Amino acid sequence: MTGRSLLVAGTTSDAGKTVVTTGICRALARRGISVAPFKAQNMSNNSMVVEGGTAGECAEIGRAQWIQAVAAGARPEPAMNPVLLKPGSDRRSHVVVMGEPAGTLEAGEFAGGRRHLARAAFDALDDLRSRYDVVVCEGAGSVAEINLRAHDYVNMGLARRAGMPTIVVGDIDRGGVFAAMAGTLALLSPGDQELVRGFVVNRFRGDVGLLRPGLDELERRTGRPVLGVLPWLRGLWLDSEDSLALGARRSGDEDDGGEADAAGAPTVAVVMLPRISNFTDVDALCLEPGVRVRYVDDPRALAGADVVVLPGTRATIGDLAWLRGRGLDTAIVEHAADGGAVLGICGGFQMLGREIRDPDGVEGSGGVAAPGLGLLDAVTEFGAGKVLRLPEGSALGAAASGYEIHHGRVTVASGAEFLGGARDGLVFGTMWHGALEGDALRSEWLREVARARGKSIATGAVGFAAARAERLDRLADLIDEHMDVDALLAMLDGGPALPTVRLALEQPR
């Protein structure tokens, strides 16, 4: 039996497709439905290691599909994100197919050079549909990117192949949501329009009654229902694929109730690298009461910070040059010299070492070597083979676990071992992403940093896994309360063809 499927598309990037897809997965799972998430192609540097690669090896998928699988109560696997594009520059992406490295893709190849990627995506969807009652598919970008439609396999190309009902999500917080929804539908071909079954308005603030005339007119003009108006919900952020979502992760005076101050708990400054990857590594710190986390791209913003975090990056040497160009390298070294703590994760750890070498051009240009910040006695050399691991161990007397995704091999000459990396005083470097999600390790690390900085912190009040589950349930509650889930389920069973919409200049009645 082939399971049913639904496409959650959007009027724009960051319209809320990921959140709506995640919420639907959770809501359906709570009804006892066997459900799996799917995204044919991600373009993201925020990824996760899962089991299920060839020969029992680990594999890599988009972080968003991983959290959607968690929401659905399904085991995350490569078929849920068969194609992952990891941008290394504005014109070149590293390709991951079914969880494994598969070369690179240049910008000029995006139109016609992806037929093999489409085949992989279609096969993966067919596989999931054979094993689950419902597959909830997330589109990419705007569903009306008509310049890419001829070779599309992520949005309406996917929907047409599978005969998949589609809902379109629009972000009203940006403004212009009615025009975006009607215009999106009008730009689609008649065959694509037939599959669009309704709209969802996302991030609404205010009285829905004031919105009703616009909703009624949208329904009259398009012949499609508005299936839900989802309110803007404070603090509802999830493991995202897109660094556009980083704004929701910022914690500060407006979020911490003033608990974090110069004499209180530590302040953490996360360097916003241009090619930042796996930025979810600091999510657990954002949830700690009293800990202020801010994202920075200017050396002056490091003033007053107790901890500087250098996160992962898909272009270590390039982002290190950017760091130097902005004077952040000097600011970080001076911060460490003044007794401040520094945490480097993966690419950030590599930057803290003595040198980074890329003899084979893994990052884009062969024969490159760059001096690091010299805060740790380590040397990195990039190689073609990618390391994908789910390591476990201990640090600071606490059990620890995480995941590794990297091409660079780090050789540590001296210093204490720390989570597959090294430490020297308050300078920590690790190749393990996600380690701070471990409650015991995070508590010990924060206590050590706070003590060294003369700060105080109460740890142990936040259980990260429980907080994530609570956010997922809040999201499912939002879907159940403000979206017509019964209509959504009926939609999965088909229905009559809907009318083709043409641009109309008539005045509203």
Structure description:
By secondary structure, the protein is an alpha/beta fold. The protein has two domains: 4-237 and 471-492, P-loop containing nucleotide triphosphate hydrolases (Rossmann fold, 3-Layer(aba) Sandwich), CATH 3.40.50.300; 266-457, Class I glutamine amidotransferase (GATase) domain (Rossmann fold). It has 15 helices and 27 strands. The strands form seven sheets. Strands 15-13-16-18-27-26-25 form a seven-stranded mixed sheet. Strand 25 and strand 26 form a beta hairpin. Helix 1 (17-30) packs across helix 14 and helix 5 packs parallel to helix 7. The longest helix is centred in the C-terminal third of the chain and has 19 residues, at 464-482. Mean pLDDT is 89; it is low at 241-245 and 251-262.
